Amino acid sequence: MKNILKYAFLLLATVLMASCEEFLDVNDDPNNPVTVSPDLVLPTAQVYTANVLHQNRYFNNLGNMMMYNWSQSDGFAWYPDEFKYNVTSSFYQQLFNYSYSNTLKMYQILDQLESPYDNYKAIAKVMKAYHFQLLVDCYGDIPYSEALLRSQEATPKYDDAKGIYENLILQLDTAILLIKNAQNAVVPGLDDAIFKGNMNNWVKFANTVKLRILVRQSSMAGRDAYLKAEFAKIASEGSGYITADVGVNPGYVQQENKQSPLWNTFGKDVGGTNTMNNNATCATDYILTFLQEMSDPRIDRLYEKPSTGHLGVPQGLLDYDTPVVDAYMPEKVSNIGPGILKGPNMPAIVYTLAESFLNQAEARQRGLITTGDDAKTLYQKGIQASFTTLGAGDATAYYSQVKNLAGWDASSNKIQAIITQKWIAVNGMSAEQSWFDYSRTGYPAGLPISLQATTSNRPVRLFYPAGEYSSNGANVPAQPNAFTEKIFWGK
Amino acid sequence: MKKVTLLMAMLLLGLQVLLAQTREITGTVTSGEDGMPIPGVSVIVKGTTLGSVTDMDGRYRLQVPVDAQNLVFSFVGMATQEIAIAGRSNISVVMQPQAIGVDEVVVTALGIRREKREVTYQTQKVGGEELNIIAPTRAASALAGKVAGLQINVQDNGVNPSTQILLRGLRSISGDNSALIVIDGSIASQGAFDALNPNDIADISVLKGATAAALYGSSAGNGALIVTTKAGKSGQKFTVGLNAAFTMEKVAYMPDFQTEYGTGWEGAYDNVENTNWGPRFDGTLRQIGPTFPEGYGLETQMVPYAPVKDNLLHFYNTGQTFNNTVYLSGSSENSNFYVSIGDQRADGIVPDDTYQRNTFRVNASKRMGKVELSASTSFFTDKSDVVGGTIGDQDRPLYWFVLNTPANIPLSTYKDWDNPLSYGYANNYYNAYYQNPYWAIGTNRNIDESNRLVGNFNLSYDILDWLNFTARAGINNVWGNGKNWRAFQDYDHDLQPSHSAVSSFVEDSEFQTKTYTGDALLSGNFKFMTDFTLKSILGATVYATDYRGSTIRANNLSIPGFYDISNGTGNLVGTVDESVKRFYGFFGDFTLGFRNYLFLNFSGRNDWTSTLAEGNNSYFYPAVGLSFVVTDAIQALKDNPILSYAKVTLSNSTVYNDLAPYRINETYSQHVSFPFGTVNGFFLSPTAVDANITKEKINTTEVGLNLGFLQSRIWIDASYFNTITSDLITFTTPSITSASTSFLTNIGELQGKGLEITLGGNLIKAKDFKWDINVNYTSNETIVNEIYEGLDEVAVTTTGQVGVYAVVGQAFPQMKANVYQRDPQGRIVVDAASGHPVTETGLFSLGKTTPDYIVGLNSAVSYKGFTVSATMDYRTGHVYYEQGSDAMEFTGRSMASVSANRQDFVIPNSVIETSPGVFVENKNIPVAGGRQSYWTDVYNDVKSNYVKDATALKLRELAVSYELPAMLVRKTPLSKVSLGFIGRNLLTWLPADNRFSDPEFNNTNSNAIGIGGYFQSPPTKSLGFSLNVEF
């Protein structure tokens, strides 16, 4: 009896202990995976690229406000900070925050892959370079070498802006090599929402990102030798530049959360109703006049033409009802046009062909590129590409005008003509690029500033977000003046 | 062995050993206080279960075995007496009132009952009667102001309000700081507590600190509320009773708003504005809303350009609540039962908000010899139908639409919203930007139903006189579903050019949580060497909870008014969330007593949890305590006429807060935009996780003092505690450039200190006149000792301009916001050109969001059958971010916006910095945009303008009741009739600058305390009647 009890107890204890371990083994998250394959990461990263460029108050939006492309209709208090050039540690801080915490985070995952994912890794490097350049252009020195390491480095140091620029070129070189040497590597397919796995296009795009980085430095004194050498490397690589607009399109569709971000923000909601941003946002008086004076047919594609004719609003207008009450109501002003807002399915523009040509034109004009099309041809190709993208037809008549800043030969200052044309070409698409150009060159000349501005010029950089001072205070540099301290390439 | 088998057989068959030979004893029990007979006194033959109860005249009659030795007489509030029978057949007894606090029995952790003198930490009990004076619909709200150390925050006043229960402040930055809820011995949840019918509660024992609750292991850190539901009182005859209450609820106060300016923008009148930036009111008749075309059938609306008195207040209804409970209870020699059915129906202050709930309870127990079986079971079901929370094309809460009504708008005339020829109709409504709130009520609904089944089963077996085995099993299942819908609305573009169409959706949700608990305890009481006692417990416990929730949503519905998922266009959006958490533990608890005045307690528990990795998931929770009854120990103090009782306690414990399930790994989730066709996309969680994450440790030391004076008619309970939480499980904020927005790790240390004093007294205790008073004082503060090197703050929540933070060296939770730059004399620095104030870079600490101290006052005065009782509390020393007034600055209805007559003005007491560090008084540079843009763009950007003193004095409860005299009642079939007039929150005093909402309101039941006033309706007060009848 005693023995039976003893064994029974032992048996019971064993069963209990064993089942206890199983009992507690319930901590595998049933809702979320711990690892996912690269083809599930890449499309998300690219959607983040599209979002950081085109969502409400991101890069493109900022560029359009800074460059006097867009203003505000009556009945809205939509852009108070933009109109005041109220650059603070909260002003457009989402550019910085979203880039690091969403876009770059996802590319960083791909950048750490090993063979056979060389193609994914290369795409990640190209896109990282693309985004880091945007950040440098807005903020100057930023975390780079110690950034994106998650729990391994909570307080990344800030790196020198010029050093980052140089390293981006090296990263792009590596990316091109990875693609060219990728044997038996997995090739992305539909999960690549930009080139659908066409790796040759990725090489061309890598060269075109280089082009933007190099041209941005072309106004710097003593930088020519470096730039020429880098352009020579692009030439010898031989793949050339992009041949069409580059955009993200994972299959945007008129459904909740699935519309192209610019359309979703400034076009219509999924129900087909104009968004508040659509009603609130319209052309400035200045740009309409400019386009009209240049006889530019793109005007009706860049801006909606109300039945009462084009009407723009000066940025920062305080009294909308003098002399005419309700003159600037949303239905009476020129809102963002059909050449920019093409529909819920439109790709989210990453880099336009027009910008590529105009960047080449500038490099050619400055003698940094010495072969291929001459500057005039590149200039005219750029304008035609802009017309094509906007759906404005043939550009020959336009660029054949004997008119300063439109016709090549009629333009006294070729660089000014190129930059001014780029301002029109990236209007509503990559408008932040023309803001960087403006800081660098001062073109387009005579651009008005907002009526509510308390400074005599527009900002040349953004403030580091307040969060960096609280979470990374030891590293974040003293904030340079937003109106006077240009990024290194503008000095 | 044979003996045990026999015993078991007897138990299983439920046999009782009855002794045949008996004789009768009779007698009367009277009170030593007033000489009156006492009904309901329990008379039991010692060592048996045989007993009886005195009748209305204090008489009893009892059959006792011939060999019975002693009778035990006991009654609540009276000293228990043991009388030797000594062959007598008539034994009358005079009972003496018991000195309160001396031999009171306290229910402690795991249902263990202890005499108060033995308890080495501080507890406080709230009786069911005290709780139910004002017929509350939730027990938690009725605890406010009654217990030292307990802070109850009633966070909103909807028909189904939520409450935050904090004991002794906060101990964790990211973890749950709410007290553990235990109902009838089983770990429950705040949901289960809120689902209780307050009428079913016998009492609530508040275990204030971690030490008291240490036996609950990882759930113990925040103290515990031990709730015991009613049982049939031993010796009580069969009783049927009814508790009925009817209350009316009204808005207590609306925000303080200006009434000088009306609809308009930049000083000009505008007939379709929601803002109040128009000209000064002049009383002239002006158009509001759109101009209707010829033959439209509706004249253009003209109203006087003058403020409509209380125009927002009149939007709200008078709410009504009927709260009825029918109960049956009774007992026999060996069994008792309690059954209740509750029904609550409420109409809220928001038109069409309704709530209905039913509660059912069956409690029963039966003793069979040495075995007692008991069960407490309840079923709860409720349904709420309230206005949706995502109204209009901006997904705003209802209050937004009410607040966005200018002062000259007769809001309550827009009720007829679905009549195309009324001014309330969407196309005709005056406001070009925000919809008619009556329309919102009709076109946005949120309907939720939930059900809860709770069962607790208890088996107690007295193996030997000194040895007991208790096993307990609890189930707590809650499940429910919800439907949330919004109707489509589009607009005539000519009448409403600025309105965007409102999209439609329907969302269905379901959830279920199943929680199972089990305990087994073996307890033995020993006496040795005449002076020593040892009460010991060994036990095991197990806990498992399993949650599953799902929602599915369809957008852009095709058929108007048909709210089914099948009616959507585009993809359905759905989520399913599941989680499982389990733990088990073994524990021991030993109390060594010496001469019944000195007690030393040791307890320990070891837990194994499912939320941490194997090998790293075992934790030991030790506690030690000492209790010393000074007045019994020191001969000279015994029977002192003034100091009747004095006890000192000292204790220390270490407990660990557990991690939530699935927290130890970084995970991916599907991105909301995906899938696109066959392409799917996932994103990595923004939270980075420390690979070595572990539990956080809470160490508490507590000193307590209990004093009773004048036969304990006046008493003082005091305690002081010091809590150190280390290895805090904290979501720190890394640099966002690390590609994570939060980092979950164990860092830092919090230190909480606090003092609690309860002063109670029966000030007057005459035959017909009684006056009891109870004052409790609570002060506690939690300081952040350290986070980690290089990091001196962590945000709990922040907008970048204002937020709740943990800041090293400062009290937690701390409100931070951007502030004006000031010169060394504290004057505001303004810009020399614009006259606008200059703000400092970064955010500044403005104060903590939990009170420095709370004073609660309860008092009851009774004269004959009348009783007047009141509960007040005063909280101060904390701040509140008044989110509503921030959001409303834009509309120009704030008092501030009219403080300078809507003109450019020189900011009083301002300076200009002429060169670094040199400040010159600003006498002549006015702010630009004083008409409007200064307020909307500059003033509104400085969030410290909306961080207000949260001080509040509330008359939370006021009740006048009358109990019909027994003489009168006895002539009817009834045994008890009492009537009451009840009031809740009748008066609230707030500082002059914080008259927007209730500083107790909070957006979330989390550690982000101190932000609210915009998602909630305005604060309310209620008045009503109650009736209690027993048959």
What does this structure look like?
The complex is a heterodimer of chains A (491) and B (1031). By secondary structure, chain A is mainly alpha-helical. Chain A has a single domain, classed as Serine Threonine Protein Phosphatase 5, Tetratricopeptide repeat (Alpha Horseshoe), CATH 1.25.40. Chain A has helices at 2-24, 38-54, 59-66, 80-83, 93-111, 118-139, 161-181, 199-216, 224-237, 261-266, 276-280, 285-293, 299-302, 353-365, 375-390, 396-399, 414-425, 432-441, 466-471, and strands at 70-72, 142-143, 158-159, 246-248, 281-283, 348-351. Chain A has a two-stranded antiparallel ribbon with strand order 1-5. Chain A is globular. The mean pLDDT of chain A is 94. Chain B contains ten helices and 56 strands. Chain B is globular and about 105 Å long. Chain B has a 22-stranded antiparallel barrel. In chain B, strand 24 and strand 25 form a beta hairpin. The chains are: A mainly alpha (491), B mainly beta (1031). Chains A and B meet through helix 1, helix 2, helix 5, strand 2 and helix 19 of A and strand 30, strand 35 and helix 9 of B.
